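Posting for a labmate who doesn't have an account.
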Amino acid sequence: MTDANPTMSPVTLNCADPRLDLRIGFQPMIAKGTSNPFAWQAVATGIGGRSFAALSATLLPEQRPALEARRITRSLERAAALRVHGGETLIAIPLGAAAGLAEPLLSHLFRAALAQGIATDRLVIEINADERGDLSHAVALADACTRRGLSVTLDGFAAGPIALKLLARFTPRFIKLDPSLVHGIDASVSRRLMAEGVMRLARGMGVTVIARGAERRGEHEALVAMGVRHFQVETASLPRGDLPRREPRNPVSAATHRRLAHHNRAVFPLRTARTTEMAIAL
């Protein structure tokens, strides 16, 4: 577990460093039987489409929280620019638990949301269910989100040991089935059995399951047959403002009242990068 009062080391990144020039796309999450997304996941990539994980791997461990802060800032800036915050649709922000310093990063999230006029009860923090095997950092981030009233998604859930241990420690609002479990599920008995086990756990805990990466009709039909009703499209799309949210709030993990004045400030010595256009896949 991390320190109860963590502090951010004043490690800086060169503001001209191309690794800070993030592009933000959005992937829609849609409930079966509806056409409008109930949520959009912000997806950050670097120049040339380089993944965020690959960018983070090029940095020293003490520099990674600064890159996480940049992802938060750019995601909320783009959400505001595209008017995603105009309706009730949720905005999912991935946050790497392995970067550590959960409290300073969440403080930065609250300040960035306030600056963009985005209500924090619309935000969902996505924690990877693997997190490089670092259970303590993932639990610390989940606990910090719970204390601040933020909803949590366990992303990349595939019934692995870290994922199950995380689920035993707290109740997320959403669980996302990992694409490796979803792909070919209609032709794999073992994958169906694992997904059905996750569905039983989720139903018992009142957690909504989202399938990520269902590309073929057979995969979609197999998932629907076992009770999956929510899907994430693995293609960047253009969000439209004022979209109604179709997914009902989970009373177990609904966001609660927060006071921004009580959130500790953290040092993220980064300047705003130039505005970039989101790539739209047709």
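Reply:
Got it, the structure tokens are right above this. The longest strand covers residues 23-31.
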